[in-house]
């Protein structure tokens, strides 16, 4: 899953035949119109035609500029209206305050999967059942080899907090992850800065270890569809996997720096790491 930043090409002027209306053609307005027009990167290409139209039909010249400005304004309003506001919902609506003495326990696999139904099945069969069960659900899931998860869990304890950049249309949004037990809570950094411990999760990944004796750990991630879509949730899960179960020395250094030397940590190093890989 690769991500690309969107970019917009420079706008340019196309002079079509327009009906003339009674509009102002004062010298001042003409001068301002031409001055604005000359800033367009395609001005030189059409300069002769524009000059001719300006001299022979100044009314039509201004009319075309006026219509072009209206079109540009409509496009600007359309872009502003299309901005994805999902990421702000968590900032506006904090979760209910919990008692400091409350102990939050990991959820149990039995609530999702009847364990007696898989007692006689091997790891491969259980993986197929797990994948089939979640295939049409708006969640992310995975089956992790026990030895791999053992490494992941050790890092979760050593580095309980970390940060991931999430590609957005306007750049990147940083998502904070906090590990507790076998659960990973993801929260938009902005929401955490506003609401602290009451900031709601945009993604919660739970690792179910009940089938460890079969050599596997099952993972299920539930995400807030007002904040993330499925691809974005998977992007965060993939990044978590690369940092917490990979052997890349650069990523290991970033984990250690963030947790043990926060003053030396640089957010843009995370962006660089993401841009240098393709998420699968």
Automatic annotation (TrEMBL):
Superkingdom, natural source: Eukaryota
Keyword Transit peptide carried by entry: yes
Keyword annotations from UniProtKB, A to Z: Mitochondrion, Transit peptide
Pfam families to which the protein is assigned, alphabetical: ATP11
Record's GO cellular component terms: mitochondrion
Any one biological process term the GO annotation gives: mitochondrial proton-transporting ATP synthase complex assembly
Entry's localization field: Mitochondrion
Family of the protein in this entry: Belongs to the ATP11 family.
The protein, known as: ATP synthase mitochondrial F1 complex assembly factor 1
Source lineage: Eukaryota, Metazoa, Ecdysozoa, Arthropoda, Hexapoda
Gene that encodes it: LOC106117655
